[in-house]
Amino acid sequence: MPPRKKEHGIKRESGSLVHFRPSGSATTVRRHSAVVPSVLTFAVIVASGGLLLMIEKGMLNSVQTPPPRANGKKVEYRLRNSDAAVDVESQIVQEIRNRTIRSMCGQKNMPHSVWSLSPLQRKTLLQHILVNDEHRFLYCYIPKVACSNWKRVLKVLSGALANVEVKVKMDHRADLVFLSDFPPEEIRHRLRHYYKFMFVREPMARLLSAYRNKFGEIEAYQRKYGAEIVRRYRKGYAKDKKIAGNDVTFTEFVRYLLDEDPERMNEHWMPIYNLCQPCAIEYDFIGSYERLESDAAYILDRVGAPQHVRFPERQTWYKPVTKETLHYYLCTVPQKFLKELLPKYILDFSLFGYPLPNTTTEYCRH
């Protein structure tokens, strides 16, 4: 085994280290403790949509995740705009997520290992964890959170692709290794010894991205899901067999989600919590779609990827979900439906520090 790399952090009561992502340069790491001031952390938590109040009122009867583990290496060579302020912000976000996940996952009714999950939950989880044995890491992918680009990176690392810019249609199964491919004892070994990470995204933005992509561009989804949604929720179409399914409204999509079991949803709109089970697995790093470039660069450095391997740039045809776009779509949905929808994704909001959306009548007038 190679010598264990030096870890930076502070001792927790349990004796394990609370790790922080190295900021700026190695000199900065040596001079300053990576500990985020507790007052600042508290202020950010309070600002994140009343998360503490939600916990106190028992709205989130669940969840916890582990601290990010850094090895003290610099990451500037992959970042175009190295900014210490951005790095500090990322540390704050990680600390908030770690504390929240620890407090919620520590509850008795939460799963504390992969093997305490139901068979269906475990199957879903293991089928969403990609394995790289050479660099000893596990990546739990979330559809609509840049997972196609991460799969490209994994294929480059395995030699299946020459580089991330190769113009080929993404095959989401070929040349990829899933944790579900292994027997239990090998799954346990990798979970215990490999670096584990995942990426998250604001829950409603992720849903809107899935809606616009699948029902606006993918004919197979229009036929399989769109046509059925129209029959169920649009008056006068219950018996229509010639529905194309290419004009599903966002409100119809939301009503469909309300009637779906989160554990049996299509992966593109299944809650992040159900896909990656952050209580059952102690992730070393939880990156953000909103800080994708810097967080991806950190991960590539942390797992020891060759320097020429970079995270792909967004395609020119990519249509981002802006705040204005999300505001427009959410405000087209009757409030009663949104109030029913949010509880299905409440763990995604609370665990990862996303504020609940403001969809009041006054807000939607603007």
Notes on the structure:
- The protein is α/β, with parallel strands linked by helices.
- It is built from 16 helices and six strands.
- A hairpin with a 4-residue loop joins strand 3 and strand 4.
- Helix 9 packs across helix 10 and helix 10 packs across helix 14.
- It starts with 8 loop residues before the first strand and ends with a helix.
Strand content: 5-15%
Low-confidence stretches: 1-77
Please estimate the helix content: 40-55%
Strand numbers in spatial order across the main sheet: 3-4-5-6
**Spatial shape:** globular
Provide the structure class: alpha/beta
Order of H and E elements? EEHHHHHEEHHEHHHHEHHHHH
Distance between the termini: 60 Å
Q: How many beta-strand segments?
A: 6
| Number of DSSP helical runs | 16
Q: Determine Rg (CA atoms, Å).
A: 21 Å
Give the averaged pLDDT, no decimals.
81
Largest sheet: 4 strands, mixed
Subcellular location: Golgi apparatus membrane
Family: Belongs to the sulfotransferase 2 family.
Protein name: Carbohydrate sulfotransferase
Membrane topology: Single-pass type II membrane protein
Task: Summarize, please.
This protein has helices at 26-31, 38-47, 51-56, 84-105, 119-126, 147-158, 184-193, 203-216, 219-233, 250-258, 272-276, 292-302, 323-330, 335-341, 346-351, 361-365, and strands at residues 9-11, 17-19, 129-132, 137-140, 195-200, 285-288.
Characteristic key phrases:
366 residues, four-stranded mixed sheet, transferase
